[in-house]
Amino acid sequence: MISYEKARKLVLSNIKILSPEKVRIEDAIGRVLAENVFSPLEIPPFAKSAMDGYAVKAENTRQYQGVLRNIGVIQAGDTFRQKLGTGECAKIMTGAPLPSGADAVVMVEDTAACDRMITMKCSVKKGENVCRRGEDICRGERLLRNGQLLSAAEIALLATIGKHQVKVRKRPKVAIINTGGEIVSPGQKLGRNKIYNANGPMMVSLLRRYGIEPQYLGMVKDDPEQLVRVIQPGLCCDVLLISGGVSVGDYDFIPKVLKKLKVKGIFHKVRIKPGKPFFFGRKRSCCVFGLPGNPGSNFLAYFLFVSPALNKMQGIDFLGPEFKFGLLQQDFQHKKGRAHFGLVKIKKQNVDYTLDIVPSHGSADVASLAKADGFFIAAENQEVIKKNEKVRFFHWRE
Asked: Which ranges in the chain belong to alpha helices (H)?
């Protein structure tokens, strides 16, 4: 058995960043950029009006008693070929190009019109209410860097400079298998001594939450021949997640079946509670995670090992989970020898976090999992934690 810290290092040291691919920018949200992006043009590409009003030469608004003659209307996208002469103005819409001879815009609210004569109720300075050419982005400027996570704001920026495709890191191909003769799919009739499969829907939803569409290979009984048949196609993916069958019971066949399929075991069993039987191995480019069958253990193992591995594959800088410190609100005692991850409800008070222990009947208790926000950690050699003592925790609802 190895420590959580060593297990995490072994997992991450066996993960390689996936190669890049080009995708439409609409499909790039949540993806990691695999190129530096430079602007091929200036933004704005021309001087334009920042609002609806009248394009003017600023000094004219202080002459002619503030009355100027309107020589036309300029809409966004128009090409206005006339040049403003002395004592002239042109009605202009937001985003429309500033005409030749103009250097400012008077807001429409600050004007009064009588036929073609426009009274300026106030004067303006040169450049007022005008977006200058190139004031937002210079030609050749680096806008986004290799390794950057793309949000909707970055997608808008890519569209602004006319980029319709972008090079990003590939999403991992992930397969999921649930084992156990006792599980049935939600929606089916629950037979005698059967339980509904919580791990499958839970794992699929966790992956979809971060943009990965997994391949669900189904539920398999604890039978070596059936397991071999179902596991084999999963080994063609980047990641294979197998729930259950990794402990030391008579029907826990997964480690033996994986060995038969020539999966190299990197480690099996971690000094954590829950989740001790966790398995990690590789076959060529496929990383195989054997997750304990109880939903609480399954859930914890995903955040401790699977999610960081998926993040690294995609070139994401933040691997997770993010550990913080909070004040435990109850005394806690546990047996030394394994790091204990306990369920907590998390509150923030000013700059401090307070952590209330969520009572649980064990790692099969899904109701307690749904009531919690995160896990706190009691170290391997820490038998007792006193009320209001500071402990590490991570939050999964953030």
From this structure: 4-13, 152-160, 199-209, 224-234, 254-260, 295-301, 307-313, 366-371
